[in-house]
Structures are given as C-alpha cells and as structure tokens.
Amino acid sequence: VMSAGSFSDSAISEGESKVYKQQDDSNQDVIVMKRDSKTAINGLYLVFDGVSRSTLPRQWAEILAKKIIKRGLNSLLDETKLGEIWRDSVGEFEEYMRDNRPKITDGMMEWMKKSVPDFAATTLVALEIKDDRASLVCHGDSCAFVIGRDNVRHFLPKEIGGYVSSIRSDLEPSIHDFETAKFEFTSGVDIILLTDGYSDPIHKLEPVAQRKRLSELIEALEDADSESAMQYTKRMISEGDKGFRFEHDDMSYLIVRKLGG
After folding, report:
1. What pLDDT, in 10s, does the model give residues 128-172?
2. Residue 107 burial by CB count (10 A; 0-12/13-18/19+): exposed, middle or buried?
C-alpha cells in the first residue's frame, strides 16, 4: 500500500515529472516514484523539499530525480557516480536557467535582477524497496520514520537542528553529505517520509508520543487528496500545535506499508 500527498497535485508523479508552471503553482516540493509496476511495492521513492531562498529549486529537484532514477539510489553513495549525477544535472539545469531567467526576473528593477541567486538547492529523503529489504538515503532535514508493531524508529536524519544541508547546483556534493540506513521490510511495517513542515514537531517527541502522532497522521493523510491534507494540517494548527508550519512551508508526505501475514 502506498500513499503520497502534497499541497499541489502536480508535485507528485509516477515515473516522470509532470509539467510544472511556476506562475500557477508555488509548491517547491517534489515526490517522484518509480516502481517495478503500478501494483508493485518494489521501487524507488524520492521526496524533495526545495530551498525557498534559491532559484527554481523545484526544477532542480525534478532534474535530479531523473538522473537518480536512471542510475539507482546506491549511486548517491558512490563518489564517482554521484559526481556524474551532479554534473549531468547541473548541465541541464543551467540550460533551463538560461532559457527561463527572463521569466524569473520579468518586472524586476535592475538592481533586484542582480540579487537573484544563480543556484538552486533542495533536500532529499529517499527510499528503495527490494522485496524484504529497504534502503533509506537522506540529505537535509526531511525525515524517515519506520513504525513496527511495537515501536517507532526515527531513522534519518540522525541529528536535527543547526545547519541544514542541501544538494546545491553550485556546489558539488560528497557521499559524506548523505546519511543512509538499511533494514528488513516486513509485513505490518509502515515507512513514512516527511518534509520538515510535517516532521519538525514529531521528531522532537518521546517514542510513545511519536507513535501516537504518526498514527494520527497516517490515519488522516493516507489516501487523502490535497484539500483533505490541508484541512488536517490547519486543524493541527488551530488546536495549538505551533510546530506545524503550514503558513510558511510546503508540506509533503509519502507512506508505504507492506501487507501480508
């Protein structure tokens, strides 16, 4: 069972990114899934959270997604393959920037145009499933939680707070910038990938409270459309949970569960 959601449906795609028009959609998150088949759980799941103080972070994330899908998740943990992904992505992104920069700066005064950053940045939390094995890779502050029958594990990132790393178009990444974890994926286990808008108030909780909050989140968001997800988040804010930053952040989630005996 798989469920994914964001505050704009165009942010979610199966296999290939959807056409994105910034003037109609300001969401900078991207969720891309590449499964062995439409009914399979085996596959690659990528959740990007574009950095708002960079330029065209969503397009940068979409380009990265294509390159990662082509080479596989483990390529992010190989210095040579990671460098190839980054250089290929930078080449495509710079071409996109050249073609679209006039649209970005249209209407700006000259001094403002010069202040527009020439780089894009995004965080990433990613999951790859192969039968009963799961691999997680993280760069930045989006989180991966794994809920078993009797516990909840906050797998990645291991440390929250302070400087937040991101994959930038102007700075070649190193494999040491990525965190990774592998574990057995058995029936009855939920894997939840969350951008920081959702995860910030959760990872700070004690395990029992984490499990309660995540269970409520799954119940509210699994198979929910974007409007229902938005209503859930607004309700959490209205009930006094100021950790939810709906008004200031894009928020996306992906839930994967293995059914069976």
Report:
1. 999 889 999 999 888 898 888 777 776 777 766 656 789 999 999
2. exposed
pTM over cut 0.90: no
Tokens coding 142: 């989006």
- Summarize pLDDT for 61-83 with one digit per residue, the tens: 999 999 999 999 999 999 999 99
- State the Cα–Cα distance between residues 125 and 31, nearest whole angstrom: 10
Distance CA 60, CA 95 (A): 11
